[in-house]
Amino acid sequence: MAFTYLTNVPLEQARKDYLRTLAEQGFAARTERIRVQDAYGRVTAKAVYAHINAPHYACSAMDGVALCARDSFGATDTTPVTLSDAQFTVVDTGDPIPEGCDAVIMVEELVKNDDGSVTIHTPAAPWQHIRQIGEDVCAGEMILPSFMEVTPAAIGAMIAGGVLELEVLAKPVVGIIPTGDEIVPPCTDPKPGDIMEFNSSIFSAMLASWGAEAKTYPIVPDKYEQIRDMLEKAAAECDLVILNAGSSAGRDDYSVSAVREVGEVLYHGVAIKPGKPAILGYRGAVPILGVPGYPVSGIIVIDELLRPLIDRWYGREPDGGTRTRAKLTRPVVSGLKYQEYVRVRMGYVGNTLMASPLPRGSGVVSSFMKADGMLEVPQGTEGYTAGEEVRVRLLRDKQRLKNTLVVIGSHDPLLDELADLIHREDRRLFLSSAHVGSMGGIMAVRRGEAHAAGTHLLDTATGEYNRAYIRKYFPHGGVYLIRCVGRQQGLMLQKGNPLGITSFADIARDGVRYVNRQKGSGTRVLMDYLCDKYNVDRDKIYGYEREELTHNSVAVQIAGDSADAGMGIYSTAKLYELDFLPICVEEYDLLIPEKVWNSGMVRQLVRTLKSEEFKRRIEAMGGYTLDNPGEIIDVF
Amino acid sequence: MAFTYLTNVPLEQARKDYLRTLAEQGFAARTERIRVQDAYGRVTAKAVYAHINAPHYACSAMDGVALCARDSFGATDTTPVTLSDAQFTVVDTGDPIPEGCDAVIMVEELVKNDDGSVTIHTPAAPWQHIRQIGEDVCAGEMILPSFMEVTPAAIGAMIAGGVLELEVLAKPVVGIIPTGDEIVPPCTDPKPGDIMEFNSSIFSAMLASWGAEAKTYPIVPDKYEQIRDMLEKAAAECDLVILNAGSSAGRDDYSVSAVREVGEVLYHGVAIKPGKPAILGYRGAVPILGVPGYPVSGIIVIDELLRPLIDRWYGREPDGGTRTRAKLTRPVVSGLKYQEYVRVRMGYVGNTLMASPLPRGSGVVSSFMKADGMLEVPQGTEGYTAGEEVRVRLLRDKQRLKNTLVVIGSHDPLLDELADLIHREDRRLFLSSAHVGSMGGIMAVRRGEAHAAGTHLLDTATGEYNRAYIRKYFPHGGVYLIRCVGRQQGLMLQKGNPLGITSFADIARDGVRYVNRQKGSGTRVLMDYLCDKYNVDRDKIYGYEREELTHNSVAVQIAGDSADAGMGIYSTAKLYELDFLPICVEEYDLLIPEKVWNSGMVRQLVRTLKSEEFKRRIEAMGGYTLDNPGEIIDVF
Q1: Residue A249 has what pLDDT?
Q2: A303 DSSP 8-state letter
Q3: Fold identical between B323-395 and B430-633?
């Protein structure tokens, strides 16, 4: 059952060999004729020449009269010249110059007489105010060279030059074949075991951004013949083919054999992580790329191995993106065998650009959505230490990062509402939050990595929240503690409380599956405090070691019947329709460094905390109390 | 007949007042529900929350067996644990974790026995290799805040979260009404007086680039009621309306009255040039913008006054573009009353970025296509002197400018073929040529403003081409003269030579309309030399003062029966099917500064001159002789 991939070829080499092999096979752009009106953003396949002159006739450039310039010679203020109506023709801008005329006098420069004649006081220079034939475009002239992107003005110039159609590079059609017995089309109520097919939607959007067109085929079950037949059909109908999933080594993975039957396989296995099981195949000039099923792996394989083919199709330089230096907030450990891709959240706190590694699970597509940058750990490198300066490829523009409030610390769903409210108020501003628990937030503020940290740490000695910790970790001050909300903490329980849990101590009962929060989170501090207070033996709690990072993720384990109880806040229990055993009301505050206190972003944050709309939203969530949010708490 | 616009309001104020007035009228984005699959690049109208968890069930993260972790406790290399087939379930990646199981062991870490049992040598930690419910997305969590652009990964995260539709800002629909009796749809054989309607195609492409959708109405003749009725229809059907042409002061200009009848006019006349006659109107919350008919004026008005409305619709910051400093090659004179827009060609020669003003005629849409940048001369400024450093808004990216060969000098259609060949050979490279005559080219090279100059200057004393001029203007060397082509010069005549012109001297005959080239062009030098040689009195030549800038534009005057004769090259006469009276073969060479000689761009230029494909194209054009093009000519 164990399986080794055929190859562990370095990415650079795989890409180069793939491009070369495909070039030898004749992989090249198709062209097509389209209407000029539809050509915006397309790329000319060959030079475009004008068919006619523009203007195609000599015409007046002004409103006025056309005349023969000689008839006006000698006119001055003292010796005006009067032209009979046979000597001139009234013309508007754009009117043709009548036969025998070679100049135009502007309406403002002549006097109309009652007998229909006009009097002028300045002679007309021959050809004045006349747009000559071809002034804009001459017939036969090249309007656009080959392989140029068509701009709005070029569309105008082509039509002016009588060009109504042109030959452009066709958009490459990329067939996407989703495979897998467990794969189902997107829906709102999947059954256990169903995996929703959304990779093709992600890939289609990526392809669109590169100027390619996706053609998604129906989902093919894990049947060898059906996969092979669909591959043949797609390779015949498309310019490139993506075979999704089945590129790994499970029992139903027929992909590589199917690619081999319909064409050739150059490599199976590339030294990247995620993305290793990629299949680099082709049939004739049609590339067939086998892409792993996990969305993050798929995105990386498509970006690193399919995008260069689209670039080659259009003959354009690969867009390497913008790389920048950033300070790593946490260590990144990587294997020597692969080039590893680590998604990072980024933010400027002061002048330093920080990069925080996001979860690396390749099934976690939301991590890609949250990523501001990509850290590529080269093959042969073991990783980086915290605080190290690394080069990161930016996935968002720098200005946005400069306008992003970095909130690191305890999780509360109200942070998402704050993000929404702040961005609605000022669309230049963004809020990005990372959930590392209250202690993690305090440390992030200490290291200068966050604009704000959510914290709710109980000093078990005094029963007071946050103040003692702040005094301990910031003995010299330099931070503000800002009142945010009071929130109801307690035990979240399955709906209807089937196990009859009525006290905190019940979580240690036999048959109760508990789900815990991670160390350093305020909720974990509270949990451990309660264990001591009620003399509950941690070893007796089934699931004490099972850690989740947010209130929500604890709640969903309970709602999904994978656990029976977990500590959390009332608003989350309400969201998931769980039963709730209230334990205490805690203070959830925001810690903000003094040095960013007067920044526009933090000013907006405080304004939003004080707003009516924030109050309205918080009250709708339930389980919160509001007592002057945004107010500075006296700590020191 | 004279007319004054109502207002000459500064652009900034006009824009601000227009935006404020429209906001008061309720101008705001519509929203619409669309499928998530179609949402790439769209902007969320409100926050999007997950409906379901992803994964929605606890599933295996590996291929292997699911078990109850406790059953594996104590397993080591020396004391392996064997599980009966009742104690585990074979699972593939993505399979649901069966009831009672809480861990997965990878297939690589177990030994299958013949009796169906498996043996393991390491205990499983509870929850290992299990993707927890909601690991990616938790139901109820915010996936995207309001007013965020939808990325490919966000599409994946939404589908994973059970979101199949979302509410986005609708693309604003912009109605475009072309008006004018003389306006006809695009065609290849317009009659004299017909003006092809291509503005709507230009505007549509501009709108598409801003995320708006154009809806172009049929051309409306200059009939007041018809214009008014179409305005009413468009204002009812669209989010914004562009009324094209008729915003000026000619006899058929009903626009402003029509806008006033269906709605309100805020301003008629803005202090910009071109674009002054713009009408800033509205009906209720629907902006109605009256746009001048000349394409360049129209583009500027749309860019300066309609684009901000689209930005406001989407709530995004106006994109001010990239501004950069550049050295002006020629003076720009501007009126004090207006902010003037001057299109410029730009290029790097060495490290200096140069900006050369393009023709300012507002009918010349091709100048917009050729423009690399826009110089905005503020209201109240008289312009700039040559050599002055100015700020220019870039219309292309800087890297492209750095990769552009700047060729300034004598016109020959072969320069367009060179541009095409060089870009086909290396798509990073571009060639931009400006036609200022041979002397203009020599001066541009002397001032360090060009990588190459086409030149064919006859030394009338020796009959030799170019060398004497180069020695005179570059007494210390520093340039290479590169052989390009020999070309046949002569008189281009109307087809069939109806006037029976058989010698150069005939151009001074009565009834012959001549069209000349501009001073400083090699062809003009030749013309004046021939006048002296054959004793032709310049005063007797009708049209001696009528100057055109290229061989083509001389030819089209003759082909269009606006002239009878003009000096030019054989290939141009052939292109326009004119008769041709040969006079001499001249040397058309390229002058290249030594300091750019070894640059990649100039290397490619020389390679292309020596190529077979260049030879093939030149021979197809006719009238050229090739004698080692690309070779260095011994000058000094």
Answers
A1: 56
A2: I
A3: no
Q: Give yes or no for A95 touching B (CB within 8 A).
A: yes
Is residue A133 within 8 Å of B557, Cβ to Cβ?
yes
To 5 degrees, how large is the angle CA A520–CA A523–CA A528?
A: 80
Contact: B556, A316; criterion CB under 8 Å: no
Selected residue of B38, B70, B132 to mutate for chain A interface (largest A Cβ count, 10 A): B132
Phi first, then psi: what are they for A583, rounded to 5°? -120, -45
The model's pLDDT over A381-409, given as tens digits with 9 standing for 90+, comes to 999 999 999 999 999 999 999 999 999 99
Chain A partners within 8 Å of B59 (Cβ): 193
Given the structure tokens 């410029």, which residue do they identify? B344
Tokens for A237? 């109908």
What CATH fold (topology level) applies to the domain A323-395? Beta-clip (2.40.340)
A430-633 to CATH, choices 3.30.240.20, 3.10.50.40, 3.40.190.290, 3.20.20.370: 3.40.190.290
How far, in Å, CA of A554 to CA of A557, rounded?
Answer: 5
Distance (Å) from the alpha carbon of B174 to chain A's nearest alpha carbon: 16
- Kindly write down the DSSP assignment for every residue of B401-422, as one continuous string: HHTEEEEEES--THHHHHHHHH
Q: How would residue B4 be classed by pLDDT, with cut points 50, 70 and 90?
A: very low
Residue A5 pLDDT greater than 90, yes or no: no
**Within the 140-199 window of chain A, which residues sit less than 8 Å (CB to CB) from chain B?**
140-148, 151-157, 159-160, 162, 164, 182, 186-190, 192-196, 198-199
Q: In chain B, positions 293-352, which contact chain A (CB-CB < 8 Å)?
A: 293, 295, 299, 315-317
Separation of alpha carbons A366 and A372, rounded Å: 12
Q: Which fold has domain A59-131?
A: Molybdopterin biosynthesis moeA protein; domain 3 (2.170.190)
Query: What average pLDDT score do residues A436-443 get?
Result: 94
Give the separation between CA A288 and CA A262, rounded to whole angstroms. 10
Tell me how far apart the 2 most distant CA atoms of chain B are, in Å.
Answer: 118
* Structure confidence by residue, pLDDT tens digits, A576-607: 999 999 999 999 999 999 999 999 999 999 99
Count of C-beta atoms within a 10 Å radius of residue B464: 13
Fold category of B11-28+172-314 in CATH: Molybdenum Cofactor Biosythetic Enzyme; Chain A (3.40.980)
ipTM of the complex: 0.93
Indicate whether A178 pLDDT > 80.
yes
CA distance B442 to B591: 8
pLDDT at A1 over 50: no
Interface contact flag, A160 B198, Cβ < 8 Å:
yes
Chain B residue closest in CA terms to A363:
B136
Residue A3 has pLDDT above 60, yes or no: no
User: β-strands B404-409, B430-435: how paired?
Assistant: parallel
Higher pLDDT, A245 or A356: A356
| Chain B residues inside the 8 Å CB shell of A193 | 57, 59, 94-96
Q: pLDDT digits over B21-67, tens only?
A: 999 999 999 999 999 999 999 999 999 999 999 999 999 988 899 99
pLDDT of residue A248: 60
Share of chain B above pLDDT 90, in %: 84
Candidates B590, B605, B626; CA nearest to B438 is B590
Determine if the peptide bond prior to B172 is cis (ω within 30°). Answer: no
H-helix or E-strand containing B621? helix B612-621
**Domain range list for chain A:** 11-28+172-314, 31-54+136-169, 59-131, 323-395, 430-633
Is B1's CB within 8 Å of A548's CB?
no
User: CA–CA separation, A462 vs A166, rounded Å?
Assistant: 79
**Closest to A431 in 3D by CA, of A458, A412, A455:** A412
Full DSSP string of B170-192: PPPEEEEEEB-TTEE---SSPPT
**How many CB atoms are closer than 10 A to CB B279?**
27
